[in-house]
């Protein structure tokens, strides 16, 4: 064949109507010219709709008409291709189907734990639907902690995959989550159950938080209280520091109690030897702040003895007020478990903080926080000075800490360090350094502090 009379096929697709509702009919005309006469084909292998073909010739133009009837929503966004080929080469033209149909939920699964908790779902609809959620029949307002995210999938037509993400939900978020989707042609909904955490509080408490109950408000002799506390806590013997302690007790003679409606749990921070600790939002703690973050430390297995210890420690913590002692706000009682409310120290315990900012931070698997650079010598001296300041304060009251360690110091914003472990309040931010197994000396406590008076003369006897 003479090359002068040979040309690659030219393919054109004419579509009078390209958008149709599901169940309608569409017609596509594929017109081809070329020399020698090309073959012409519609690629119909992936079509889910019913179809027929009709051939025709108009002079030198070949025509292959594709009729679609009772079109299926499964063909929405399908790229429909007409191909032609002769000895000179191939040619093709393509048109995308636009089929409108009512939105439908393909699946909604129960919550599963990924990086955040996720309710996986898939929906399909054209036009693109709106997405909203209900939580236990009430509208769910999305925030930075609860949000919907769609996952693009170009190979799946108009199907949209996504997740409703919840960042560290607690038992307060347990319940039914209903997905509602809607477009101009229809509406659909489905419900899944989210169970994120067992209720750590009294199951008969509908609010899911500990009710407040003040200890007895009857007048108490400050000298008696001083003697009891000094003789039973921190290894302090009667007669030491009574005057200074009595002065402190006069300033604060009752433990503050936090009201039920003022506390909203956010998520679990960890579990220590005596119970779990939660991050919470608390209202009405400070006159100049509506709400603030706090650490709620719960006490498990509260028998009569531990309840008494709990009350004594609460009274003591109320007395201790210093810029480098973790601030104690109050208690919630009368229900299980008992709980203490402390200020929240954002960076957790000093042990992990030092590891995260030490020379080996990048190779330690246990470090979860982003590296912020190695601490400088002035910064480490600043940390030591703050701890020493807190210990000097305790020494001025003749209190002995008995277990000063980096795991028992907490780090806040601006490299502020505070002593944060007193007796039962061990390990607010760390997990299971010690667990209560049997009576005896707690690991790390120097035996000579337990029974005899002493004079500060070594690093182990520093009060």
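-> sequence recovered:
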């Amino acid at each position: 064949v003479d090359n002068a009379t040979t040309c690659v096929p030219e393919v054109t697709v004419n579509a009078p109507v390209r958008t149709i509702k599901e169940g309608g009919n569409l017609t596509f005309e594929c017109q081809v010219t070329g020399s020698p006469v090309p073959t012409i084909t519609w690629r119909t292998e992936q079509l889910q709709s019913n179809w027929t073909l009709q051939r025709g010739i108009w002079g030198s133009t070949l025509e292959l008409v594709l009729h679609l009837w009772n079109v299926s929503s499964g063909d929405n966004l399908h790229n429909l291709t007409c191909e032609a080929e002769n000895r000179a080469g191939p040619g093709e033209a393509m048109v995308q189907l636009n089929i409108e149909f009512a939105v439908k939920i393909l699946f909604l699964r129960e919550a599963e734990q990924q990086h955040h908790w996720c309710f996986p779902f898939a929906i399909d609809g054209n036009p693109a639907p709106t997405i909203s959620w209900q939580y236990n029949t009430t509208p769910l307002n999305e925030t930075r902690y609860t949000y919907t995210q769609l996952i693009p999938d170009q190979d799946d037509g108009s199907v949209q995959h996504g997740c409703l993400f919840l960042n560290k939900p607690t038992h307060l978020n347990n319940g039914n989550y209903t997905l509602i989707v809607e477009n101009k042609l229809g509406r659909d909904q489905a419900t899944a159950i989210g169970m994120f955490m067992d209720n750590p509080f009294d199951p008969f408490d509908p609010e899911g938080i500990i009710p407040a109950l003040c200890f007895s408000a009857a007048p108490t002799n400050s000298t008696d209280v001083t003697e009891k506390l000094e003789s039973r806590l921190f290894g302090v013997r009667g007669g030491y520091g009574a005057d200074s302690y009595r002065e402190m007790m006069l300033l604060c003679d009752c433990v503050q109690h936090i009201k039920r409606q003022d506390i909203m749990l956010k998520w679990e921070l960890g579990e220590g030897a005596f119970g779990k600790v939660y991050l919470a939002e608390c209202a009405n703690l400070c006159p100049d702040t509506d709400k603030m973050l706090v650490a709620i430390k719960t006490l498990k297995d509260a028998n009569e003895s531990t309840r008494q210890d709990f009350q004594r420690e609460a009274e003591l913590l109320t007395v201790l007020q210093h810029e480098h002692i973790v601030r104690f706000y109050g208690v919630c009682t009368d229900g299980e478990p008992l709980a203490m409310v402390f200020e929240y120290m954002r960076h957790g315990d000093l042990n992990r903080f030092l590891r995260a900012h030490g020379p080996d931070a990048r190779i330690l698997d246990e470090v979860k926080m982003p590296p912020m650079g190695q601490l400088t010598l002035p910064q480490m001296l600043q940390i030591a000075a703050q701890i020493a300041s807190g210990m000097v304060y305790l020494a001025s009251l003749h209190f002995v800490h008995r277990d000063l360690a980096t795991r028992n110091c907490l780090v806040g914003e601006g490299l502020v360090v505070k002593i944060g472990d007193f007796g039962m309040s061990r390990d607010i931010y760390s997990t299971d350094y010690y667990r209560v197994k049997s009576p005896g000396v707690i690991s790390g406590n120097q035996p000579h502090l337990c029974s005899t008076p002493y004079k500060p003369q070594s690093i182990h006897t520093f009060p």
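The helical segments are 222-232, 242-251, 304-319, 350-356, 377-396.
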